[in-house]
Amino acid sequence: MLTIEIARRLWWIPSLIAYTALIVWATLRAASPSADSSDELADRLQEIHDEEIDRLTALQEKELADRDRILEEYQGEIQTVRNDYWTTINQIETQIRAQRADIVKRIYEDPDAAAQILTDKYGIIYVP
Known about the structure:
Helix content is 90%, strand content 0%. It is built from four helices and no strands. It has helices at residues 2-9, 12-31, 35-109, 111-122.
């Protein structure tokens, strides 16, 4: 008799638990994605992924084009430096040949003056 009396007084507790469980279940079911929305979400994620791949591909192509352009400019600058170097070397060799020819000419014309030039310029003592 005691349990029936307690059940009559506290009948609302099991009812409250059942109603709460029913409300939680209905709320979670409504909030969970359905199969259609999962497919839509997967499609949208695939589109976003494809767009990002396209952007990365375009960025990579731009970087490669910029690299090729910079390499061409670099090769042009290197060629300019090489040409300048060889031009300068040829000018220096021409000057050296002219100076040697001048010294040889002076040696035949005035050996003492040529000996003095060699001593002053190169530290060589020339004895005729």
